[in-house]
From TrEMBL:
The chain crosses the membrane at residues 21-42. InterPro entries: DUF6090. This is Uncharacterized protein. Pfam families: DUF6090. Keywords: Coiled coil, Membrane, Transmembrane, Transmembrane helix. Residues 42-79 form a coiled coil.
Length: 253
């Protein structure tokens, strides 16, 4: 093709047709420019198509991870609510003013209330991977990006309150199990085969009358309610993101 155009130019020059040669040369330049523009347009189209496919795959991975996170979040909130109810029960501060007696404070209930502590959080592996590899720009929807920023904020706030509760628990509340009761009977809920007949039984009503213990468990109850509130805030962000991403994916079909 290049040889063909070159021959035409040479023939025009040889025949002394300078004007026609210049017009031809300009036309040839225009054709080259048009060819370049078409090539760039095709390249841009292919690049946009590639980015669109990658964005969709990214959103699908995020949605899958968020649906798993939602299940984890709901389970963790349920466990926190159970801990809250156990603490309310042994402290005898039920809203219906039902008096607690030793018959309903079993070793297992006391252990669950005092010993249990959930520090896990929902996982956001897909988002964290995108962030660490600087690929968040793949998501074009600004609302989704803003929601992830809010989710990260809620996650950090939850982590702070979990660490505060854990710190108080390790320093103060675990001391109750070490110094104020006989812990061996509580082990039976984990190891049913052990014999605790010769172990002294715990009088939990008497233990729970000690001001220091009541205050410490009251602190744990307060922290637990704060944790529930922060977990619910995070759960709301997770569900909001799921709705946004599902909508975005439906619009991209």
């Amino acid at each position: 093709m290049i040889k063909f155009f070159r021959k035409i130019r040479q023939d025009l020059l040889a025949e002394g047709k300078t004007g026609k040669y210049l017009k031809y040369a300009v036309g040839e330049i225009v054709l080259v420019v048009i060819g370049i523009l078409i090539a760039l347009q095709i390249n841009n189209w292919n690049e946009n198509r590639k980015n669109s496919i990658e964005e969709r795959a990214t959103l699908e991975n995020l949605l899958e991870n968020l649906n798993l996170s939602k299940i984890q979040s709901e389970q963790l909130i349920s466990e926190e609510n159970q801990l809250k109810q156990n603490l309310i029960q042994i402290l005898g501060v039920n809203s219906n003013n039902t008096k607690v007696n030793t018959e309903i404070i079993s070793d297992s209930i006391f252990k669950n209330a005092v010993w249990d502590l959930q520090s896990d959080m929902p996982t956001f592996n897909s988002y964290n991977n995108l962030k660490s590899t600087n690929k968040l720009s793949l998501i074009k929807n600004k609302n989704i990006n803003e929601k992830f920023t809010e989710l990260e904020f809620r996650q950090n706030k939850l982590n702070d309150i979990l660490e505060d509760r854990l710190s108080v628990h390790q320093i103060r509340i675990d001391d109750i199990l070490e110094n104020d009761i006989n812990f061996i009977p509580l082990v039976k809920s984990n190891i049913p085969t052990i014999n605790i007949e010769n172990e002294s039984k715990n009088n939990y009503l008497q233990v729970l009358e000690i001001k220091r213990i009541r205050n410490l468990l009251g602190m744990k109850l307060s922290f637990t309610q704060d944790v529930i509130d922060f977990r619910k805030n995070l759960d709301t962000e997770i569900k909001g993101l799921i709705i946004l991403i599902e909508k975005e994916l439906n619009e991209k079909k």
